[in-house]
């Protein structure tokens, strides 16, 4: 043993925690600067900080560190999806069935439009379908973060949240089915075509149900004590993230379903006042910063054109879908145009879907990734800006939050 | 200067205005939904009139003119159906109640109209704290002098209306110990309270002109009196009621006002003078604080009794007139309210049962929908 064993070794150990803390600090400061100087929502600062510190620009964080931060990212996305799920009122879909129709239409048209343009630029059909399916999902973290920071209330906000959670589910289901097809194309095992999507979808829903019921039982036992409820739910949420991963299920569907069911079965409204407060905020900061740092900017030159075309087609599809049923679902044309903009963000969930996919099929990841990741990069800031503009123009943001 | 010539109207006709709470379905806090709801409602043909109020979390509905309670109730039910249907489409819930139990006034936003913006600038936090929800009852009067007579004669019954309608025991997240905490928010305004004593419309016009010339008021709207004349409608307007939890209760309160006014106009019991107001603020406080158990004093007769007893006595006195007006059923309902407790009592029981204020609001919305 060296005589100077007590001195720290250099470079310091490759633990993720200090780097997470550093990223958090940088992102938080950037967020405050953006807020104070530009009067924009903090998330733009978090994204910029992430990009600047990421391996592709500043290089403060390496790919390996980001890999270590996956745990944090998964939990953060889990908490976001759970909160989004909690905001979904299934009763609203029953009372206003045109909303369900709107969500199916906007997702379907966005898928069709993206699929068509990708075929036009000669992407292989199955890959085109996969990319289009991933593009169905609106970024849940962006819509949730903006809603919270702007304290937005109103029809654009409510419908943005509802349609986002629904289109995340659709995206996931379509991707699972396509993956099974793809699997068949590679390996010719018919059983897995049927069994894999069924396992993913119903397995995830079942786990979500178990967690939702367990949570409600626990809340009944704990009584209406906010502190105890909060700790219990956070613990269960983290467990749910791990269970989903351990069982090879979909984190997206498990957590979103968990949130939706926990609300739907909560007949006594025990959950009513549960808020994730500061912890939720920290996780959001990290979610944005880590996913921004992960963005593979180097794919942009390869996929920029295809990505831009994809973004345009996606916007067009969603807009037509929202407009077509706006009168029937009780939305003015003006708010419909703003709602279409609010559905622009794309992140988080899409990133997970791309990752899930390349984990199953390492061979096909890169060619598809170039297109999807380029779209993601383009929308990382553009999508959030569009949603922000929409909420403000709709008059649904609380003015006092904008100074 | 605004003319306040009294436009005669058919005596004892009724009209009701209700301010309603718009809450979200998630945690039942007040939500900014008035513009969205009104945009949706405007497109349909509907009964009554549905308007924005000072904040985005409130709408005001009003009926047409009715001579009978049953027609008034029918219209109120139609309006409720319309409002609830629109709310369902937009994922909003509508509730009665004089105040939202746990909203924070700093979160409220002022509806974007010049008059509301002006009120907000003038009164500062009072305007936002004024996110309270009342019922206004209009009673038609043949001329200005009768209107002033009724206005001052009704002062004696103001505590009854407060106690029977009281539905704002919780405010800003706490039990205020008051049955109607809403009126405390109203009393903070400089031009609230009672109308000056004048029995001739010409005297009242002189008073109004003085106030107007000196720049204190611009129109009758600037007076926040408990009972005020509404010359352009030809009515007196009773403004002390909290919005009840159901439209049925709202219609019953209007019928009660109609019966009392008929009794006052036909039999002219007692003499009206400034002395009627000796115990006015004391009695009103008793009604706000203790509801039907409050003790009121009749300064002229020297009698002291609970408001519940006073309601029972008044119901007996107006029974003949209720029969003439076909409103025995709603008055029987109010008799049972006086016996069994008002909405404030119901809310305290519901809270004790549910243990959470959001849950209480949820139940209020359920009651508004079905009651």
Q: List SSEs of chain B in N-to-C order.
A: EHEEHEHHEHHEEHEHEEEHHEEHHHHH
Based on secondary structure, the structural category of chain B is alpha+beta
What CATH calls the topology of chain A is Na+/H+ antiporter like fold
Q: What does the average pLDDT of chain A come to?
A: 85
Helix content of chain A: over 70%
Indicate the radius of gyration of chain A in whole angstroms. 21 Å
Q: What's the mean pLDDT score of chain B?
A: 90
Which stretches of chain B are low in confidence, meaning pLDDT under 50 for 5 or more residues running?
Answer: none
Structural class of chain A: mainly alpha
List keywords for this structure.
heterodimer; A: 403 residues; mainly alpha; Na+/H+ antiporter like fold; 18 helices; B: 371 residues; alpha+beta; Creatine Kinase, Chain A, domain 2; two-stranded antiparallel sheet; 15 helices; 13 strands; 46% helix
Describe the structure in brief:
Chain A is an all-alpha fold.
Characterise the protein shown here.
The complex is a heterodimer of chains A (403) and B (371). Chain A has 403 residues and is an all-alpha fold. Chain A has a single domain, classed as Na+/H+ antiporter like fold (Up-down Bundle). In chain A, helix 17 runs antiparallel to helix 18. The model of chain A has no long low-confidence stretch (mean pLDDT 85). Chain B is an alpha+beta fold. Chain B has one domain: 2-Layer Sandwich (Creatine Kinase, Chain A, domain 2). Chain B has 15 helices and 13 strands. In chain B, the strands form four sheets. In chain B, strands 1, 2, 3, 4, 5, 10 and 11 form a seven-stranded antiparallel β-sheet that branches. Chain B has a two-stranded antiparallel sheet with strand order 6-7. In chain B, strand 10 and strand 11 form a beta hairpin. Chain B is globular and about 55 Å long. At the A-B interface, helix 5 of A face helix 1, helix 2 and helix 15 of B.
